[in-house]
Amino acid sequence: MPTYPAAATAVQGPLPYPPKPCDKATWPPGEWHDEPDVMAWTDEVTGLHCAILRQSRSGVLNGYVAVPPGSPLDGRDYDTIDTEVSCHGGLTYSNRSSEGLWWFGFDCHHLGDFAPGDKDRWDHDEIYCPVLYVRRQCAKLAAGLAAIAAATGGDAD
Length: 157
Hints:
Elements: E1 3-4, E2 9-10, E3 38-42, E4 49-54, E5 61-67, E6 93-96, E7 102-107, H1 131-151
Antiparallel strand pairs: 1-2, 3-4, 4-5, 5-7, 6-7
């Protein structure tokens, strides 16, 4: 199990890319100070790898779900399936990791999302997307990816 310095902890499972350290010293008080910056797990329902990584500058969380090589979704651009899955703000990412997994992802830095590292947006009436919310959105995305893969004649896992 790898240890990532940015996370200051061991991470269970692969990640879409190496995390960057977050300097939270200038961020306002809030739950982001107590949350992990990196999480990885296997979705219990679909068996797909999931991950959450915090953007180092803005402080928002991004959610990711991977499909393995050979999946009908392997190598597909997120734009080709964005309307078929549901997750916070829609898909904004697809790429292959060093482990050979194809990752789909979303971010929580849209209009209405609070970004603790973005001082220009602190005055707005925005809502922070905490780890538990992002984890639920990952499960929702994993279910959607599994359903698409099954409908196209294959397994997402």
